[in-house]
Amino acid sequence: MASLEYAPLRNSKHTLFLDEPPACILIAPSNPSLVVIGTYVYDTEKGTKSGSLRLYRKSAGNSNLVFLDSHDTHAILDAKFSPHDPDYLATAQTHGCLQTFRLDCGADPPSFANKRTISLFDPETILLALTWSPMDPSLIACTLSTGGVAIINPDLPKNNVEYSYQPHSDQAWTCEYSPDGRILYSGADDSILYAQDLETKAMVWKDRRTHGAGVTAIMARPDSFTLLTGSYDDNLRILDLRTRGQDVGQINLGGGVWRLGKRGTDGRSVIASCMYVGSRLVDCGEDLRTPSVVARFEEHESMNYACDIHPMDPDTVVSCSFYDKRVCIWDIKN
Fold it and tell me: What family does the Swiss-Prot or TrEMBL record give for this protein (predicted)?
């Protein structure tokens, strides 16, 4: 395995510059040639926030991105496809809004359809991140700029917030369900990692000592007792939930670990969006205690907030960076 210093540096196969800053990027689960991008625009003169959800197609050989469709939205912070319906997409937005879309892959060209905007909170509240329940296809967990967490059912005609609680004193950047859907983990600017039992509606535990700065990314492994976290303190950590989140392995990735994504299904290999230093592919080791960087991508010249890998094409990465409005396609192996 390679250390961060000696990990192979990869080059882009294609670079696209947008007219708006991209905050999140996804490869469509049902079609690995389709790429979804959410943008976030802040007009400093008007003091307004807006964005768009855009659809592109990767050409043969991943040598190009072709624009297909776009919808104007509030500014988008996060977007996730449902694990129960690969064409159902939810977006976390400013103005207290959750917006859902259906991706019509059968259309020519493919496009977004059946969008629904749900105003959940006051306009000053921002939905910062979301994650779908792994067990209940109707539920989405969202973290809020107020430090709160809300469990939302977007399919209800009204009263969409089914449960909410206040685990953090500052902006809550991320959340993740346990594999059985019972526990919800959340992290925030207050450096707290919080675990809530959604059945009993009681705190399981909280940790404020492990992370040296805000908790920005959480990933649950399928073994149900290992959690990966990212932080502004530049570290990727491997936590053992059997000991209330004891840190059993960590690696400094050189930049704030904003998002984590899976490569493959075993959870051993992850792709990390490391803000101002680019993307890192990390192997957590056979014992899940010895993480090392095996590839890195550093062409992004501003905040790398997102990247994604499709399970049917595990060597191709799409990534984006915010202020330079850059979207890149690159290969892990060369």
Answer: Belongs to the DPH7 family.
